[in-house]
C-alpha cells in the first residue's frame, strides 16, 4: 500500500469539486471509506437514491461518484491497495451494466414483446461482453469500458397485446444496446457512469451494434484478424443465460486458442505493438507535453499485458490454466509453469503494480481518462506526492527503473531474433553458399562443396527437390521465405563432421518439409535460432530422434528453454499435471488420449535431449523412462475406469503388474510394456468390469490418434499365456504361481513388480512374488530347465550375420539375464535379499558379495551388461531394429560373460 503525502481534497480536484457540491457528501465518503465496498453496498446505495425519487441513470451516476470518491480516500490514506481498487471498480461496472440491462430489457419487452429464437423457440437475452481491462476484472478508476453486444439467435419478438410493436431480434437487441450506451455514458449534471467504447465489435465502427452467434462465428472464421485474438482473450460475459454463454465460448475459443503451440502470435503481436508505439511516438512529437505515457510508452503497462498474453495465445489452446483473463493471475501462472522465472515475474508484477498505481493517481486529478504524466509542474509534484515521493525526480527515477525492467523483458520475447531469409550471411564462404529456390543443381552443388559436404552431388539433388517442390511453391510468400531462410541457416550450422553432414541434412529437410505448412513452427524456429541449432544437433546425433521430432513437431517447444530441458524430472508433479489435464478434457475420450500422448512425448523428448547431451547414465535414463511409464499407466487406468458405465465401485480394486524391461526398470525409448492385470474384488460384476477395464486400457495405450500411440502392450506373460484370462483374481494368480507355473514363468517373476492401481493388491503381489521366488529348488533340475529355455530362445532368434547380436548371441544380454534369474531362483530361499527388484547389475554384484559367484567375475559381468545396454541404446537411437556390432568390439565382454556362464552351467 502507498500512503499519499497529500489529503484527498488537496490531491484530487475531482474529489474536492464533488464534495463542494453537497455538504452531506463529506460524511458519506467518511462512512463509506472505512471499509471496502462490494456488490451488496452498490445495491443498497442505489436503492437509497431511487427511493428518493431519482431515475435509474441519475441514481447510478451518483452512486458511481460516491464509489470513486471513497476509493480515492481509501487508497490515498493507505487503507487499500491496487487489488481492492481494480476489483471494486470492475465489480461496479458489472453491477451498472447488469442493472441497466435488466431494467431496459423489461421496458423493451413491455413495448415490443419477448425476443424468440427461430431455431430453439426459446426466449433470447442480450449478452454483454466486457472486453479489455473490464474483461480481466482489472478496470481503471476512470476508464471507459469496452463492450460487445451479442445475442444467440435471429427471430422476432413475440407480442402479447395490440399495443406492442413487433421487432426482429436484431432490431430489438440493437435498440436495447443503444439505450444501454446512453444510460451509462451520456454526460448529465451528475457526470457519467462509464464511457463506453464499442470499437472491438465485429467489423468495428462499421459493423452492426449487436450481432447474433451465427454472425460472430462467421466473422471470426472468415475475417477475424490476429489483433482480435488478442482482444478476445479478455472477453467475459457480464449478462446472459449460462447456457448461451457456454455456446458462445465454444464459438470463440477455437478462434482465440489454437490446438497447437502458436508461435506466429509473437510476430502478429510484435507488429501490433509497433503500430501502437508509432502512434504514441507521433503524438509525443506533436504534443511533447504528453510524453511519459505509462500505459502505451516504452516499458509501460501495455508491454506487460502483451508479455502475459503472448504466452496465452501461444499455449492457451493446450493448457486451460493459461486462459485466465487477468494479467496478474496469468503472470503468476507463467512462473508456476516455469515459462518465466519467479524473479522475472516478481519484477513484472512489481512494475505492473507501480504503473497501475501511478495511472490511477494521474486519473484522480480530474477523473480523466489519461495515462500521461502532466506537463504542469504543480500537477507533476501533486502526482509524485500522491505516490509517496517528496519530489518529482525521485518518482521519475523509480518509474524509469521499472520501465527498464519491463522493456528488457519485452525485448527478450518480442525482439526480432530470426535473421530474415533475404539477408546475406557475412563471411565470403557463407555468402557463396546462400541458396535460393531458383538455383540450378550445379550452383547448389558448387555451394555445398564450398561448405565441405562429402557428397555434394547427392545433397544438391535432395536440396533442389525441396527448394523447387510443389509443396514449397504453394506456400504463402512469407512462409516460403522463412523456410528458405531456415535451410540457409542450417547449412552453416550443421556440424563440420563431413561423414555425418549429408545424413543430417537429409533428416533436416524431411523435418522442414513436414512442418512447411505449419506457419507456427516456422515462426518458432525463426524467432528462436538457438532452437534450430538444437534441432540440428539432435538430428546429427540420432536418426531415431530426427524421425520422432518429424512425427511430433509439437515437441519443438521443449527445446526452447534450458531450465525446462535440463531439469530433472519431478514425477509426483508430473502425475498431478497429468490428472489436471485429464480432468480439464472433460468427457472427450479422444482429447484425453491425446493429452496422455502429448505429455508422454514432451517428457520423453526432454529425456532424449538430456541423454544426447550426455547428462544421463544408461541406468538413470532407464529409471526415468520406467517411472514415466508408471505414471502414464496409472493415469490411464484411472481415466478409463471413469468412462465405465454402471461400474460397481468408484475406485477399482485392480492393479497392473509390470514384467520384463518395465518390471526391471530397464525400459528403453521404444520398449513395449509387458504387463498382467490382477483384481481382488468379490462383487459378482467384478470379473466383467475388470476385463473391460483391461481391454479399454490396452485400446487407450495402443490406438493411433493424431498424436500417435502411447505404448505397445504385451500380455503374453499372464497365467496360462494366450489361452488364459485377460485379468486374474489375486487368489487365482497365487494358486497358479504356487502350483502350476513353469520355471520360465518364475524366471519372469524375478523381474516383476507392482506398477499401478490398487496399492493393497500391489503389496499382496509382492508378498506372493517373494514366497514363490524363495521356494527351495533342486539345483540340477533348475539348471536343466533354464538351459532348455535358453536353447529355445537361441533357436527362435538365429543370427546369420558376421556381427555380434548384443541381446541374443552367446555371451550377450540374455545370457546375463538368465544367469541372474538362475541365481535368484537357486539361492533366494537362503538369501531373501535376492528377491529385491534392484536390476541385473546390482543383483550380479550382490551375488558376488554373497559368494555365490566369483566377486571379480561378477563385477566384470555387470560392467559388460552396462556396456551392452549402452551400445544397444546408441544403435537404437540410430533407428536400427537389431542391436548388432562387430564381434571384436565386445570380444572381451563376451568372453567374460561366457566364463561366468561356464562356471554356473557347464
Helix content bin: 55-70%
- From the 3D coordinates, which CATH architecture of the largest domain would you assign? 2-Layer Sandwich
- The number of helical elements comes to 40
Bulk shape? elongated
The low-pLDDT segments are 418-433
The end-to-end distance, rounded to whole angstroms, is: 83 Å
The largest β sheet comes out as:
5 strands, mixed
CATH topology of the largest domain: Beta Polymerase, domain 2
Q: Report the top-level CATH class of the largest domain.
A: Alpha Beta
What integer is the average pLDDT?
Answer: 90
Within CATH, the superfamily of the largest domain carries the name: Beta Polymerase, domain 2
From the structure provided, what is the oligomeric state, counting identical versus distinct chains? single chain
Overall number of structural domains: 6
Give me the Rg, rounded. Answer: 35 Å
* Strand content bin: 5-15%
Number of strands: 14
Structural class: mainly alpha
Q: What does this molecule look like?
A:
The structure is a single chain. The chain is 59% helix and 6% strand. The protein has 6 domains: 1-80, no CATH class; 112-256, Beta Polymerase, domain 2; 264-414, Up-down Bundle (Four Helix Bundle (Hemerythrin (Met), subunit A)); 428-557, Four Helix Bundle (Hemerythrin (Met), subunit A) (Up-down Bundle), CATH 1.20.120; 564-773, 2-Layer Sandwich (Beta Polymerase, domain 2); 779-905, Four Helix Bundle (Hemerythrin (Met), subunit A). It is mainly α and 906 residues long. The strands form 4 sheets. Strands 2, 3, 5, 6 and 7 form a 5-stranded mixed sheet that branches. Strands 8, 9, 10, 11 and 12 form a 5-stranded mixed sheet that branches. It has 40 helices and 14 strands. Helix 9 (213-222) runs parallel beside helix 11 (242-256), helix 12 packs antiparallel against helix 13 (301-315) and helix 33 (730-739) runs parallel beside helix 35. Mean pLDDT is 90; it is low at 418-433.
Amino acid at each position: 500500500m502507498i500512503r499519499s503525502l497529500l489529503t484527498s481534497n488537496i490531491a484530487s480536484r475531482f474529489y474536492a469539486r464533488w464534495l463542494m457540491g453537497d455538504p452531506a457528501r463529506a460524511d458519506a465518503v467518511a462512512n463509506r471509506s472505512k471499509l471496502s465496498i462490494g456488490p451488496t453496498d452498490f445495491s443498497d446505495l442505489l436503492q437509497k437514491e431511487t427511493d428518493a425519487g431519482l431515475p435509474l441513470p441519475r441514481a447510478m451516476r451518483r452512486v458511481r461518484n460516491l464509489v470513486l470518491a471513497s476509493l480515492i480516500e481509501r487508497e490515498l490514506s493507505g487503507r487499500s491497495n491496487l487489488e481492492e481498487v481494480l476489483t471494486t471498480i470492475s465489480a461496479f461496472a458489472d453491477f451498472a451494466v447488469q442493472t441497466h440491462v435488466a431494467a431496459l430489457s423489461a421496458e423493451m419487452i413491455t413495448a415490443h414483446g419477448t425476443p424468440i429464437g427461430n431455431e430453439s423457440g426459446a426466449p433470447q437475452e442480450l449478452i454483454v461482453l466486457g472486453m479489455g481491462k473490464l474483461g480481466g476484472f482489472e478496470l481503471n478508476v476512470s476508464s471507459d469500458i469496452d463492450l460487445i453486444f451479442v445475442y444467440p439467435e435471429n427471430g422476432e419478438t413475440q407480442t402479447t397485446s395490440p399495443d406492442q410493436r413487433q421487432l426482429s431480434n436484431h432490431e430489438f437487441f440493437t435498440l436495447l444496446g443503444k439505450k444501454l450506451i446512453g444510460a451509462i455514458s451520456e454526460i448529465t449534471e451528475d457526470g457519467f457512469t462509464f464511457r463506453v467504447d464499442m470499437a472491438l465489435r465485429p467489423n468495428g465502427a462499421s459493423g452492426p451494434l449487436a450481432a447474433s452467434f451465427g454472425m460472430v462465428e462467421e466473422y471470426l472464421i472468415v475475417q477475424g484478424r490476429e489483433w482480435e485474438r488478442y482482444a478476445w482473450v479478455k472477453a467475459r460475459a457480464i449478462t446472459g443465460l449460462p447456457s448461451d454463454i457456454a455456446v458462445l465460448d465454444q464459438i470463440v475459443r477455437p478462434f482465440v486458442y489454437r490446438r497447437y503451440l502458436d508461435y506466429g502470435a509473437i510476430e502478429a503481436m510484435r507488429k501490433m505493438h509497433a503500430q501502437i508505439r508509432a502512434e504514441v511516438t507521433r503524438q509525443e512529437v506533436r504534443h511533447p507535453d504528453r510524453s511519459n505515457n505509462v500505459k502505451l510508452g516504452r516499458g509501460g503497462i501495455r508491454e506487460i499485458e502483451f508479455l502475459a498474453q503472448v504466452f496465452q495465445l501461444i499455449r492457451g489452446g493446450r493448457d486451460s490454466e493459461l486462459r485466465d483473463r487477468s494479467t496478474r493471475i496469468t503472470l503468476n501462472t507463467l512462473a508456476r509453469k516455469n515459462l518465466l522465472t519467479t524473479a522475472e515475474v516478481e519484477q513484472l508484477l512489481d512494475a505492473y503494480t507501480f504503473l497501475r498505481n501511478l495511472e490511477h493517481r494521474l486519473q484522480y486529478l480530474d477523473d480523466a481518462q489519461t495515462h500521461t504524466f502532466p506537463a504542469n509542474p504543480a500537477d507533476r509534484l501533486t502526482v509524485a506526492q500522491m505516490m509517496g515521493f517528496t519530489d518529482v525526480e525521485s518518482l521519475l527515477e523509480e518509474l524509469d527503473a521499472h520501465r527498464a525492467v519491463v522493456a528488457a523483458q519485452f525485448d527478450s520475447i518480442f525482439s526480432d531474433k530470426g535473421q530474415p531469409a533475404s539477408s546475406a550471411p557475412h563471411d565470403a564462404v557463407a555468402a557463396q553458399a546462400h541458396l535460393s529456390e531458383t538455383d540450378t543443381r550445379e550452383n547448389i552443388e558448387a555451394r555445398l562443396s564450398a561448405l565441405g559436404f562429402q557428397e555434394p552431388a547427392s545433397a544438391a539433388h535432395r536440396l533442389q527437390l525441396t527448394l523447387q517442390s510443389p509443396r514449397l511453391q504453394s506456400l504463402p510468400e512469407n512462409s516460403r521465405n522463412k523456410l528458405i531462410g531456415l535451410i540457409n541457416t542450417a547449412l552453416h550450422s550443421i556440424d563440420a563432421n563431413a561423414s555425418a553432414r549429408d545424413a543430417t541434412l537429409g533428416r533436416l529437410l524431411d523435418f522442414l518439409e513436414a512442418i512447411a505448412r505449419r506457419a507456427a513452427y516456422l515462426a518458432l524456429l525463426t524467432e528462436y535460432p538457438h532452437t534450430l541449432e538444437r534441432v540440428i544437433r539432435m538430428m546429427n546425433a540420432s536418426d531415431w530422434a530426427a524421425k520422432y521430432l518429424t512425427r511430433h513437431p509439437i515437441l519443438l517447444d521443449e527445446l526452447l528453454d534450458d531450465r525446462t530441458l535440463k531439469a530433472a524430472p519431478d514425477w509426483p508433479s508430473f502425475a498431478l499435471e497429468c490428472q489436471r489435464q485429464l480432468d480439464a478434457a472433460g468427457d472427450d475420450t479422444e482429447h484425453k488420449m491425446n493429452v496422455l500422448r502429448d505429455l508422454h512425448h514432451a517428457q520423453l523428448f526432454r529425456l532424449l535431449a538430456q541423454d544426447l547431451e550426455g547428462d544421463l547414465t544408461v541406468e538413470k535414463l532407464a529409471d526415468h523412462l520406467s517411472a514415466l511409464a508408471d505414471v502414464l499407466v496409472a493415469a490411464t487406468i484411472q481415466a478409463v475406469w471413469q468412462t465405465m458405465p454402471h461400474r460397481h465401485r468408484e475406485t477399482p480394486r485392480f492393479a497392473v503388474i509390470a514384467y520384463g524391461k518395465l518390471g526391471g526398470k530397464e525400459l528403453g525409448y521404444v520398449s513395449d510394456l509387458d504387463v498382467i492385470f490382477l483384481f481382488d474384488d468379490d462383487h459378482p460384476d467384478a470379473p466383467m468390469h475388470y476385463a473391460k477395464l483391461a481391454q479399454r486400457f490396452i485400446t487407450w495405450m495402443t490406438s493411433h490418434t493424431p498424436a500417435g500411440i502411447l505404448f505397445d502392450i504385451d500380455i503374453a506373460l499372464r497365467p496360462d499365456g494366450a489361452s488364459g484370462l485377460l485379468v486374474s483374481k489375486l487368489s487365482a494368480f497365487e494358486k497358479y504361481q504356487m502350483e502350476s507355473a513353469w520355471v520360465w514363468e518364475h524366471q519372469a517373476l524375478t523381474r516383476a513388480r507392482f506398477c499401478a492401481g490398487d496399492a493393497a493388491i500391489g503389496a499382496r503381489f509382492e508378498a506372493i512374488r517373494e514366497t514363490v521366488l524363495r521356494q527351495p529348488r533342486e539345483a540340477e533340475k533348475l539348471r536343466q530347465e533354464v538351459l532348455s529355455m535358453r536353447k529355445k530362445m537361441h533357436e527362435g532368434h538365429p543370427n546369420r550375420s558376421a556381427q555380434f547380436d548384443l541381446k541374443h548371441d552367446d555371451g550377450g544380454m540374455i545370457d546375463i539375464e538368465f544367469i541372474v534369474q538362475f541365481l535368484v531362483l537357486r539361492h533366494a530361499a537362503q538369501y531373501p535379499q535376492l528377491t529385491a527388484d534392484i536390476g541385473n547389475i546390482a543383483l550380479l554384484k550382490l551375488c558376488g558379495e554373497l559368494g555365490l559367484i566369483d566377486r571379480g567375475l561378477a563385477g566384470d559381468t555387470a560392467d559388460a551388461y552396462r556396456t551392452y545396454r549402452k551400445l544397444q541404446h546408441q544403435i537404437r537411437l540410430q533407428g536400427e531394429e537389431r542391436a548388432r556390432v562387430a564381434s571384436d568390439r565386445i570380444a572381451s565382454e563376451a568372453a567374460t560373460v561366457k566364463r561366468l556362464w561356464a562356471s554356473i552351467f557347464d
